Amino acid sequence: MTDTRKPVESLLTDYDIFEPSFIANPYPGYSEIRESECPIAHTDRYQGSWLPTRYEDVVALAQEYEVFTSRGILVMPPPPGQAEGAYGGVAAPPITSDPPDHHWHRRLILPVFAPQAVAKYEQGTKDLCNALIDEFIDKGTADAAADYAQHIPVRVISTMLGVPFDMEEEFTDWVRGVLENMHDLERRKRSRQSIIEFFLAQVEDRKKNPRDNDLITELLNTEVEGKKVPIEYVLGVCNLMLVAGIDTTWSAIGSVMWHMAQHPEHRKQLRENDDLWPTAIEELLRVYAPVTMARIVDRDIEFQGCPMKAGDRVLMAFPAANRDPRQFENPDEVILDREHNRHVAFGSGIHRCAGSNLARLEVRIALQTWLERIPEFELVDPASVTWAGGQVHGPRSCMVKF
Amino acid sequence: MGSCHGHQMCAIAAPEVFGSDELGNATVLIAGDIPAELEGKARRAEANCPERAIIISE
């Protein structure tokens, strides 16, 4: 496909988060904006947005939830007409919720994702990583993104939702439709519709055939202030788990594999020192934070000298914040035993990623299991690695040999 | 500034000092003074909280 987009004139006034070189490697661009006289860039592309790049500004945005609302959290506005029709109002609570509803929207799902709750997925995740590796270990080559990373979160989330594994391909396609390919408005609309229809059928099934230890059944039976929660909430949580739980973690695992393929010294450090893992995982999450969120400005406001209008979209580029030299020494360097690391890969404030403990577990198990089975590996060709970006950054194809 | 929003980075840095409640928010596992051998870890937990919600007093 020919790229017909208009060339970027200046990152400060015309950035394009879907421009191919920015998708592949956004960090030099973030750095250029961050160190300029204007560390909050603006673009008119995709109906306009602001892009703060300093840690302090990104965290301030996340904390000021009354000004920077979650009415729109994607980096591009929704297709026209998305909110119309039956279930048009299905969102992705609590990520799309603002207080006061945000409180119960979040309260209900947090126990599912607490560290002690996600620990029960550890063995299953390890088994599935091993099964994926069995498929290619004898070949001496594999796509660490498409043959490995891509399959892990989708199966973990399917297990949590109690839906069949054979939906993996559809789930992946739908999630790519609403995130990675969100600029294709028709596909985005279709993908969202498929997600809602699928979970609507699941909800109907659980109503007829309630299951034990089943998240969807439990959500349907949950009461808030004496009333069953609305079906839109249940559908929204399912939507969230799919859309926020798959592409994000798959991208993080993929980036970690890409990094490790190029850093034998880091593989060696991890092999030789078990105690290094906790800080190492946080450091990898800092450097390869996959997610950029958005906020909608509630009212006209001046933020760090920028005249923001009610309804403006502001991007919360956590990957940019995590590489701010004002907050992190040698921010572009991976230091596996980094001691001071207040990274915001999972955001900050009331919308801290609800699935962060699960994501951490998946990234750790994916890397540990791979290194146990395939201690030495390298990229086949660094130039052939392909990337997704915009809302979620990570490799889509990453061939390695061993 | 700040209050706990359940990042769990304290429990990662100092699992002997910080734990998790049912919602995933931090709990303090040690009553009173932090034993000398855990002080380093506790300081690291303080330095890793993205909400700056931990303050260890002398």
Write the layout of secondary structure elements.
The complex is a heterodimer of chains A (402) and B (58).
Chain A: H1 11-14, H2 20-24, H3 27-34, E1 40-43, E2 49-52, H4 55-63, E3 68-69, H5 101-107, H6 110-113, H7 115-118, H8 122-136, E4 141-143, H9 144-148, H10 152-161, H11 168-178, H12 185-208, H13 215-221, E5 223-224, E6 227-228, H14 231-245, H15 247-261, H16 264-272, H17 277-287, E7 292-297, E8 301-303, E9 306-308, E10 313-317, H18 318-321, H19 356-373, E11 378-379, E12 386-388, E13 394-397, E14 399-401
Antiparallel strand pairs in A: 1-2, 3-7, 4-14, 5-6, 7-10, 8-9, 11-14, 12-13
Chain B: H1 9-13, E1 18-20, E2 26-28, H2 36-48
Antiparallel strand pairs in B: 1-2
Structure description:
The complex is a heterodimer of chains A (402) and B (58). The model of chain A has no long low-confidence stretch (mean pLDDT 96). Chain A has one domain (11-401): Cytochrome P450 (Cytochrome p450). The longest helix of chain A is centred in the middle third of the chain and has 24 residues, at 185-208. Chain A has 19 helices and 14 strands. In chain A, the strands form six sheets. In chain A, strands 3-7-10 form a three-stranded antiparallel sheet. Chain A is mostly helical and 402 residues long. With 58 residues, chain B is α+β, with helices and mostly antiparallel strands. Chain B has helices at 9-13, 36-48; strands at residues 18-20, 26-28. In chain B, strands 1-2 form a two-stranded antiparallel sheet. In chain B, a hairpin with a 5-residue loop joins strand 1 and strand 2. The model of chain B has no long low-confidence stretch (mean pLDDT 93). Chains A and B meet through helix 6 and helix 17 of A and helix 1 and helix 2 of B.
